[in-house]
Amino acid sequence: MLGFIWAQLRGRAGRSVALLAGVLVATTGFVVLTGATTTSRLDVTGALERNTQSAYDILVRPQGTRTPLEAERGLVRPNYLSGLFGGITPAQYEQVQQVAGVDVAAPIAMLGYSTSSVSVRFDLTDAVDRSLERQVIRIDPTFTADRGLSTAPSRPRYVYVTKRPLLYPEGGYDTDLSSIPYSDGRKYPYDQNCGDVPRELLPDGQSQPICDPHATPQPGNGWVSERKNWSVDTVRLLPDGRFEENRWQSGRAKRVATDRLVASYFVTVPFLLAAVDPDAEQRLVGLDDAVTEGRSLRPDDTATDTHLPAHVPERFIPVLTTSRPYLDVTVRSALTRLPQARPAGLSIADMEYALDNATGVRAGTEEYALADGYRDLLSEGISPTGCCRGELQTIVQAGATEYDRRPDGTLRAVPRPPLDPATFGSDNTYNFDGRPWSADDNGFRPLTAVPMQPPGAFSQLIAWRTVGIFDPEKLSGFSDLSRVPLETYEPPRTDGADERSRQALGGQPLEPNGNPAGYLSSPPLLLTTLAAVPKLLESSASPARTAPISAIRVRVTDVAGYTERSAERVRLIAERIADTTGLDVDLTFGSSPAPQTVELPAGSFGRPELRLTEPWSALGVASVITRAVDRKSLVLFGLVLVVCGLFLGNAVSAAVRDRRPELAVLACLGWPARRIAALVLGEVAALGLAAGVLALGLAFPLAAALDIGIGWRRAALAVPVGLLLALVAGLVPALRAAGTHPAAALRPLVAPARWVRRPRGLFGMALVNLVRTPGRTVLGAGALAIGLAALTVVTAAAYAFRGAIVGNLLGDTVSLSVRGADTLAAVVTVLLGAGAVADVLYLNVRDRAAELSTLRAIGWTDAALSRLVGYEGLLIGALGAVAGAGLGLAGAAWLVGGLPAALVLAAATVALGGVLLTCLAALVPAALLRRLPTARLLAEE
């Protein structure tokens, strides 16, 4: 038998070589393309391992704190911690620490917004007219924020400049205000509006207070907006041209002469205060390493009580202060010089009258950024009287923003009316800084005031004092694809999502404007210790007294980059924490930024409506991507295998059909059916074995040229795969050859289609010709359909990584890794399908050679015959395209979880391309029509 098989292969060398080439193409393509899918999966897992190292793996929060968007779409807003205030007890924190496998459990207790005062300074030297004996420089401040889009005017400030001597109250911080003497030794009565203020000496030896008697009292509580604050500063212009003013230095009042006249006043800035465990925070993000001045927090740092003479008791909370305020606020001031209208006395009301009557002189403009004022404050150094301290009489807690969801997926922030003024202080709750000017704008978060003492029971000053300064941007860095925005201290910045918004923002990101109820919330920039929280809240009515911790960030041991083993380990530990504590537990391991488009309604201070791109987080992205890649690889593997089998089966069937008369003669000579089947399978197996060996040699250089990794084990699979493919492809033709009656084997290969009506035109004749060989037609259409289905699935996978599954930056990065290899696999699969269609058309031409020669003899032109073959290719292509698009859309729906319009359009485009490809493939068999030996074929008939 072996000798006979070898003789048959050698005797029909052309047919054997053609069949060998088919097996070789199928085997090499199978090995290389499956290597491509494996390479793409390795690229994906490698990308996940490189880009999913986050600050923590598990986030533990109070039960019921997940937002609707988080529960529905797995999305977390930037600085999500800014809206969480307590809910986890110290006992629950200890339970988390004791769970086996927890490496770091870092708690954070969000306490609320504390107000601090930042000085803004304006140089008025050039605005002073040195020829005038007395004058007033009026400062008209305007607060600007949101990249200059929000503007809010404020009450004027005044600087009174006189050449006459001035009397100042003497004393210090420890002096009883009611007994402060002036520099002339006398005690002047306390002014109802102005208090103990400087007094100007008049020519007659008398003195008058430097204050506007028509002004309202200076506000002193937080319910009054700082835009309504006013002040009158007094400066003497000395004969030598310098300016003398009274300053408080080291707790005492001192006269200071300077060359420049600089006016300053305070602006209220809210900072978010949080309490942490310093040791856990150091292990989690390297907090100690980010300290730039002073010292870091110690675990035993707690509140300290002091009592100065003539002052109420004070309680100070140790705080680590940020070096970056992350505030986009600028104060712009117009300067006007107002000459004195009356020969004696001072009345700012008269000055304003002169200004209204256009007698004031414009003296320029000044601008000062609040961030610069904060840096100036830091430059004073850390000391009891220097940087830095802030109010904690009443803290303000901000809730979460609510959203309306648009049909296109855009989120629209729901605005809220301006705040109740009592939020920042009232007659029963104290706060000594004015209400932030930006709080008068529309907000997006609900605010709750939390007095640190019972209402009306003011017994001590509560404030924070800096022990050190830290730079948030020096904390431990992680992958840009994972650390934002789940990182606790990441600054909030959003960019314009359309051209109009980008132009309005001047091409810069939107930043917080200092409004605690504003859309953008700053991260916690003031850090104290958990040990200080009990004293801070002991007199408060806050429900966080017994459960102060807002969240616990957990890092799991023996977890680095994303792997299936690590993911399972994190999942199991998260389940243990949830079962032990009953808290909400989320897997942040393998998360990634998922930018969301947000519509921000217009503000009341001039900011127009904006469309923004905000870096949200998508939880558990890596596991979703891994599952999608595994499903995609499995689908492509099966499709490559099937299309290679069909391509090879068609080639083997053609070879067997070509030997039908020979096999019929062998049957007539007494060969049994099993021996005929063994002969066919033996020839096919020999060719498959040879093709596998050749594929083994071709796989490496071809894979290297395509940048596909194929190891020896995968390459060695070429031999058994080639043999198996050959046997599977030859099994059906061998059984059909063995079971065919010798007389039937001698009949024509093409049978008439009796049920088809008489054809009209070339198109109808092409349809009849395809129906006459249904098996061959279905085989060609099926091979093409599988290739097109593979290409559709690859397109769906790319679409899924770009948005439909996860919609995140990690998905975009992974799509770059999988797109090249998968597209190659799908395109080659489509080409194999088109080759199968061309092979079907070639066999049709060869089997119907006599018919076609007859048509040519009766006057049909070669062009008409070529169009006939082309129509057959078009019909097979259309059948395969419709079937392939349907299969591809089904696979896409399984992969993506739906059928977006973009995928339907992509499938239609792929189907159209498949039809065009088959029309091109039909050109090859159509060209063979010119080589038909018409005379010989008609003579044989």
How would you describe what is shown here?
This protein is of the alpha+beta class and 941 residues long. The protein folds into three domains: 2-49 and 623-940, no CATH class; 54-113 and 378-618, no CATH class; 122-266 and 330-369, no CATH class. Strands 4, 5, 6, 10, 11, 12, 17 and 18 form an eight-stranded mixed beta sheet that branches. The chain has a six-stranded mixed barrel with strand order 3-13-25-16-23-19. Helix 11 (621-658) packs parallel to helix 19. It starts with a helix and ends with a helix.
What's the layout of helices and strands?
Elements: H1 2-11, H2 13-51, E1 58-61, H3 68-73, E2 75-76, H4 90-97, E3 102-123, E4 134-145, E5 150-153, E6 157-162, E7 166-167, E8 199-201, E9 207-209, E10 232-237, E11 243-249, E12 252-258, E13 262-276, H5 278-285, E14 291-294, E15 304-306, E16 314-322, E17 329-339, H6 348-356, E18 361-369, H7 370-379, E19 389-398, E20 403-405, E21 411-413, E22 447-451, E23 461-470, E24 495-496, H8 499-504, E25 526-529, H9 533-537, E26 551-556, H10 564-581, E27 584-587, E28 592-600, E29 610-618, H11 621-658, H12 660-668, H13 673-705, H14 712-716, H15 718-739, H16 742-745, H17 761-772, H18 774-804, H19 809-847, H20 849-857, H21 862-896, H22 901-921, H23 923-927, H24 934-940
Parallel strand pairs: 6-10, 13-25, 16-23, 21-28
Antiparallel strand pairs: 1-26, 1-27, 2-29, 3-13, 3-19, 3-26, 4-5, 4-6, 4-17, 7-8, 8-9, 10-11, 11-12, 14-23, 15-16, 16-25, 17-18, 19-22, 19-23, 20-21, 24-29, 28-29
Helix pairs in contact: 2-11, 2-13, 2-15, 2-19, 11-15, 11-18, 11-19, 13-15, 17-21, 18-19, 18-21, 18-22, 19-21, 19-22, 20-24, 21-22
